[in-house]
Specification:
Elements (H helix, E strand, L loop, with lengths): L1 E11 L2 E5 L4 H4 L7 E6 L2 E6 L1 E4 L2 E6 L1 H6 L3 E8 L35 H10 L3 H8 L8 H11 L6 E4 L10 E8 L2 E8 L2 E4 L3 E3 L7 E6 L4
Parallel strand pairs: 1-8
Antiparallel strand pairs: 1-2, 1-7, 2-6, 3-4, 3-7, 5-6, 8-13, 9-10, 9-13, 10-11, 11-12
Helix pairs in contact: 3-4, 3-5
Length: 221
């Protein structure tokens, strides 16, 4: 999985880095060291992300590269050899998905902390209990990393890059999982064909994109 964003290039006390504008733990299943392959404004290199604590990281730069980059640059990175499996072997595949995503039915969460599982349930056409069983996580434990692994398990095709576009007036694809800023945690909802399916608020016609952290396109056919 790739992660794409516009990052600020920073110089502090002889240390050069690109700020990552999201919590890495929320999108990369696991914690600790994250060796990554980075492309910054067309410059490719590998490195270990610099941990700041609680899931926040930076991309370290050499002085030469930092001097060559604009103050804000186009960045894509992917984690190297960081693979996790939450569901075991799957009876599904891209050729045999659990369902074709050609419609959407609203499912709401019975209590807070289940929005990620509810989004998977809506996309897969399964119950919330079934989605929780696939994801193997309880309240407040779902993150984008687990959701991506669950989509792969269910054979639901998606883009290979998460787009981070905080505060921008982006144009969404036909279907996507959206990440919204909400206090300490991210809130997840599904966008499908002009309508927002929010596990908490229900069906919405409008969404404040100032709260958008990023989105993952779900392929429709």
């Amino acid at each position: 999985m790739k992660y794409h964003f516009i990052g600020d290039v920073v110089s502090e006390n002889g240390v050069y880095y690109i700020k990552i504008p999201f919590n890495v733990w929320e999108v990369c299943t696991g914690q600790g060291s994250f060796p990554v392959s980075v492309t910054a404004q067309g410059n490719e290199f590998t490195c270990d992300l610099m941990p700041l604590g609680k899931g926040l990281y930076q991309i370290p730069l050499t002085k030469e590269l930092a001097d060559a980059l604009p103050k804000q640059c186009d960045v894509t990175f992917r984690v190297i050899e960081h693979v996790a499996n939450v569901s075991g072997s799957s009876p599904y595949s891209l050729e045999n998905p659990i369902r074709k995503v050609d419609s959407m039915k609203l499912i709401t969460q019975p209590n807070d902390g289940l929005c990620g599982q509810t989004c998977i349930a809506m996309l897969a056409g399964m119950t919330l209990d079934e989605a929780c069983e696939v994801m193997h996580c309880r309240d407040w434990q779902a993150n984008m990393g687990r959701m991506i692994i669950s989509l792969d398990y269910l054979g639901i095709a998606h883009a290979d890059t998460i787009e981070y576009a905080s505060g921008e007036d982006v144009e969404f694809p036909k279907c996507a999982i959206l990440m919204e800023k909400m206090g300490r945690f991210s809130h997840y909802l599904v966008w499908y064909d002009g309508t927002y399916f929010d596990p908490t608020e229900g069906i919405l016609e409008e969404f404040d994109k100032n709260n958008l952290v990023g989105y993952l396109e779900i392929k429709t056919f």
